[in-house]
Hints:
By secondary structure, the protein is α+β, with helices and mostly antiparallel strands. It is built from 8 helices and 14 strands. The protein is globular and about 85 Å long.
Amino acid sequence: MATIGTLPNLLDAAKLRGADGRILRTAELLMKLSPMVADIPFQEGNLTLGHRVNVRHSLPTPTARRMNQRVLPTKSTTEQNDEQCMELVDYSQVDCSIADLGGQSAQYRMNEAMAHLQGMTNEFERQAFYGNSAVVQEELDGIIPRMTAASDTVIDAGGAGSDNASIVLVGWGAQTIYGIYPKGTTAGIKHEDLGKHTSETSSGLMEVYRDRWQVNAGIAVEDPRYLAAIRAIDVSTLVADTTGATTNLINLMIQLVHSVYNIDSPLIKPVIYMPRTINMMLDIQANNKSNVYLTTEQVDGRRHLSFRGIPIHVSDAMTETESTI
Length: 325
């Protein structure tokens, strides 16, 4: 998969440090299990537990000058933010007698491990959207808790109750929004083959093969102008009105695209994320009227949806039970 500018994706980053082929293999698997993980460019953080970024709040203002006129120097204003990495750990173990049947113990263990990899991928994606270290100290700081009030980049769809959802647009890039892993560590999932062990419980003993899985990662928002969302989409209201008269998703998404700074910059990869039901209703609304914004194409035999050329990815980590903003 191509890199964005000079910033590697997860697999590229794993290659920089991962002499162990298992690290590269698990990084590749992680990307295949989640479109979002495949989208995110990753870089090594500059802190032991994360990454410190300078967020620019204002630009310097030049002075119109005449001859022999002195000019006062100006400067931009910035704020330092520390982005935190979370650590996920899981163990898998299988009965040695079952794994050794047919002489394919390594393949059997990998097949069993896929469930653990999927679970870790799902949890990373959930935290990438909803993680909040202010509520749960061990979590990374996700995207949606950063957008809790209407603003230039947050569109309030006016939903009520507790069955709301969001659509998020991220401009991934080396100096905008990207994934991080702690300084001096390896990108992706770390896998340790712990070998054969005697598992002891109150029911007795059993010989097992055991594996340990670990991932350390976070999300850094260096330029918030490239992060936008439609919040408080009332799901029940949306589903009840397939015409879009009540909640016009296409109009909202046009606003969303225009709320991101320089969406056509070659240095970013913009991607739109939404829950499954919202994706279905967008498709229905687009089918009900003349539509030039929503397009589909077949890539590797799979149907891919995009809005004004920006890929749309369904995330099952995004809930349809959000509160209002």
